[in-house]
C-alpha cells in the first residue's frame, strides 16, 4: 500500500520487521506503591530514551502503549498533559520520554498492550515480526504483553535495563521467567544493535 498522505504515517516506511513498544512510561505513579518506582523508573526512562533515539534513526516504529488511568474518554494528549503538569510523582518520566509528533500510541484498559487495543492491527500494517518491549512494570504489564506477543508468534526482546518493577527481586524474577517461557532476548540496551533486527 502506497500512502497518499505521508504525514499520516508517522516516522517509518510502509513496513518494518521490528517495533519498539514503550509500556506505561507516561505514568503519574500516583498509586499506593508508586513511590517505590520513582528512582528505578527514571533510570529506565533514560535507557529507553537512548534506545528510542537509535530506533528513530533506523526508521523503526516507536509505539507508546499506555494505561488510560481507567478514564475511557481520555486521549493520549490528556494523559501526557496530566503527567507533565499536574505535579505528580511520574513527571520526570514524561519529561524524559515525551512522545514525538510522529510516534504512535495505543491506550490500553488492562495489563496487556494487546488487550482491547489496536496494537495488533498496527503491527500487522507494518508487517512486524520482532518486538522490543520496554517499560513498567516488569512483573505485570511487561509479562502480560510478552506472553500475548509470544502466542502471536512474535520474536521478543526485553532489554534488561529498560524495564523495572516495584523492587529488584520482582524485576529479576520476571526477566528470568520471560527468558525461560517466551524465549525473550534480554540483551541490555547498551549492547543491543537494532540494525540487524531491521533486516
Report on the structure:
The protein is α/β, with parallel strands linked by helices. It has a single domain, classed as Rossmann fold (3-Layer(aba) Sandwich), CATH 3.40.50.850. It is built from 6 helices and 6 strands; from the N terminus they run E-H-E-H-H-E-H-E-H-E-E-H. Strands 1, 2, 3, 4, 5 and 6 form a 6-stranded parallel sheet that branches. Helix 5 links the parallel strand 4 and strand 5. Helix 2 packs across helix 3 and helix 5 runs parallel beside helix 6. The chain starts with 17 loop residues before the first strand and ends in an 18-residue tail after the last helix. 41% of the residues are buried. The N terminus is likely disordered.
Please state the CA-atom Rg, rounded to the nearest Å: 16 Å
Secondary-structure element order, as H and E? EHEHHEHEHEEH
Please identify, by name, the CATH architecture.
3-Layer(aba) Sandwich
Largest sheet report: 6 strands, parallel
Round the mean pLDDT to the nearest integer and report it. Answer: 92
Tell me the name of the CATH class.
Alpha Beta
The N- to C-terminal Cα distance equals 20 Å
CATH topology: the name is: Rossmann fold
- Helix percentage range: 25-40%
Write the topology of this structure.
Elements: E1 18-23, H1 38-57, E2 62-67, H2 76-85, H3 91-97, E3 104-108, H4 119-126, E4 130-136, H5 138-151, E5 155-157, E6 163-164, H6 168-181
Parallel strand pairs: 1-2, 1-4, 2-3, 4-5, 4-6
Helix pairs in contact: 1-3, 2-3, 5-6
Summarize the structure.
By secondary structure, the chain is of the alpha/beta class.
Summarize this structure as a short list of keywords or feature phrases:
199 residues, alpha/beta, Rossmann fold, six-stranded parallel sheet, 6 helices, 37% helix, disordered N terminus
Amino acid at each position: 500500500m502506497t500512502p497518499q498522505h505521508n504525514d499520516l504515517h508517522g516516522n517509518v516506511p510502509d513496513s518494518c520487521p521490528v517495533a519498539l513498544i514503550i509500556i506505561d512510561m507516561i505514568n503519574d505513579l500516583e498509586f499506593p506503591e508508586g513511590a517505590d518506582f520513582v528512582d528505578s523508573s527514571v533510570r529506565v526512562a533514560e535507557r529507553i530514551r537512548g534506545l528510542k533515539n537509535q530506533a528513530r534513526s533506523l526508521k523503526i516504529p516507536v509505539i507508546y502503549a499506555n494505561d488510560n488511568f481507567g478514564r475511557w474518554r481520555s486521549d493520549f494528549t490528556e494523559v501526557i498533559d496530566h503527567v507533565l503538569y499536574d505535579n505528580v510523582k511520574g513527571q520526570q518520566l514524561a519529561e524524559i520520554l515525551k512522545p514525538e509528533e510522529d510516534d504512535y500510541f495505543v491506550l490500553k484498559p488492562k495489563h496487556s498492550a494487546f488487550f482491547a487495543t489496536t496494537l495488533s492491527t498496527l503491527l500487522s500494517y507494518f508487517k512486524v515480526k520482532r518486538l522490543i518491549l520496554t517499560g513498567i512494570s516488569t512483573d505485570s504489564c511487561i509479562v502480560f504483553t510478552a506472553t500475548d506477543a509470544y502466542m502471536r508468534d512474535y520474536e521478543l526482546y526485553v532489554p534488561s535495563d529498560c524495564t523495572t518493577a516495584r523492587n529488584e527481586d520482582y524485576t529479576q524474577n520476571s526477566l528470568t521467567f520471560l527468558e525461560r517461557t517466551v524465549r525473550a532476548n534480554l540483551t541490555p540496551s547498551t549492547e543491543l544493535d537494532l540494525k540487524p533486527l531491521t533486516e
